[in-house]
Specification:
The protein has about 150 residues and is of the alpha/beta class. The chain has two helices and 13 strands; from the N terminus they run H-H-E-E-E-E-E-E-E-E-E-E-E-E-E. The strands form two sheets. It has a seven-stranded parallel beta sheet, covered by helices on one side. The chain has a six-stranded parallel beta sheet with strand order 2-4-6-8-10-12, with no helix packed on it. The chain starts with a helix and ends in a 16-residue tail after the last strand. The relative contact order is 0.13.
């Protein structure tokens, strides 16, 4: 592959440079922490919802829900359980989701368990995340989550 030892050494140095710049970008863990701090609404893990939930803002959901969620920016906490459809512009999943997901950006943490299809523009999956379903790229991204578009009870 390399004709001289110098070429091999040069290639190795370039590889190390690329690797270190890749590692320097925001890690998934930092993104999760930043998003959690920016959440306008926090649903505690003691909360159980039977029915649909919607919000125009950022939500950290740590409880249990049987119903649909329609939120601009959603973080499904590590202990959260969602049984229903999620529609969101930005979605971070650390807990359990069973149902359809429709979001511009979807990130599955290592602790995520997702059983259902995901329609997305961007999909990130950490090692050890569990995903059983079909991933489809959106033709057009969601523009907003408005009150008129929210599911009714």
């Amino acid at each position: 592959m390399f004709s001289t030892k110098k070429e091999a050494t040069t290639f190795q140095k370039k590889l190390e440079t690329v690797g270190s710049s890749f590692i320097k970008r925001d890690s998934f863990e930092n993104i999760k922490k930043e998003n959690a701090l920016m959440a306008e609404t926090v649903i505690d893990k003691k909360v159980v919802i039977e029915g649909n939930f919607s919000s125009d803002g950022s939500v950290l959901f740590q409880g249990k829900i049987t119903g649909d969620i329609r939120v601009s920016n959603l973080i499904v906490g590590k202990d959260a359980i969602v049984n229903g459809t999620i529609t969101s512009l930005s979605l971070d999943i650390l807990g359990s989701v069973t149902g359809l997901i429709d979001a511009n950006e979807v990130r599955l943490a290592a602790t995520a368990v997702v059983k259902g299809d995901i329609t997305h523009q961007i999909l990130e999956i950490e090692k050890k995340a569990y995903f059983e379903g079909v991933s489809r790229r959106m033709v057009t991204e969601l523009a907003s989550i408005t009150k008129d578009e929210r599911p009714s009870n």
